Amino acid sequence: MNILAIDTSTMISTVTIANDSEILGDFNVNQQKTHSESLVPMIETLLELLGMEFKDIDEFVIAEGPGSFTGLRIGMTIAKTLAQVNDKKLIPISTLLALANNSSSDKLKVPMLDARGNRVYGAVYDKEFNEIIKEDLYTIEDFSKLVNDLDKEIELIGDISLKYQDLFEKEKVLPINFRNTIGKSLIKLALENKNDYDLYQLVPNYLRKSQAERELLRNDQKNGN
């Protein structure tokens, strides 16, 4: 079975192709282009390099979020289109859970993504990847306190772990090559996932309203609606 995984949760575009036993190709690009410009060419290039076509892919995997609103929307749209056109299954995987799976240590795994304004998308998992602190949107102060109150050795994972590492006790930051890209973890989690999903019901997991939605809500409240 061949699996193609996509992640557009952050500035990094990731495309990974694997079969049941090994990673065949892993393509990560951190650049200023939008995911809408880079993602499809990346997919086509990796397939070509591997001598494969879309018909050779048996399942698609998408990092469903949380993360960048625009990135998540683009990634989900492209993944759903590919799955629909090729009549294949699409498996959504939590971005934070995939980040946590970059670590194989016995420490508590603390994946974090930047939500701006001193806020983070965060969660905590144990060595078996059970959720200890639920995946949610937190202020960095609240999240670091929740983590420190656990009084356990932790491993910080994610694109802002270096920025906030001083707020955490008993911390270790995962090396940069493991900290951000999650293609291999998406493949691993997809192989373990036996659930069936309604392709047409799949949506990104934003965890909070977009800026446009928040502005609309504020305007409605001002107008007494």
Automatic annotation (TrEMBL):
Q: List the molecular function annotations (GO) for this entry.
A: transferase activity
Instruction: Identify the stretch annotated as signal peptide in this record.
Output: none
Query: One GO BP annotation here?
Result: tRNA threonylcarbamoyladenosine modification
Mind naming one GO cellular-component term on file for this protein? cytosol
CDD domains, per database record: ASKHA_NBD_TsaB
Q: Which UniProt keywords apply?
A: Transferase
The record's InterPro entries line, in alphabetical order, gives: ATPase_NBD (IPR043129), Gcp-like_dom (IPR000905), T6A_TsaB (IPR022496)
Q: Where is the Gcp-like domain?
A: 32-155
**PANTHER family, per database record:** TRNA N6-ADENOSINE THREONYLCARBAMOYLTRANSFERASE (PTHR11735), TRNA THREONYLCARBAMOYLADENOSINE BIOSYNTHESIS PROTEIN TSAB (PTHR11735:SF11)
UniProt protein name: tRNA (Adenosine(37)-N6)-threonylcarbamoyltransferase complex dimerization subunit type 1 TsaB
Organism (species): Anaerococcus octavius
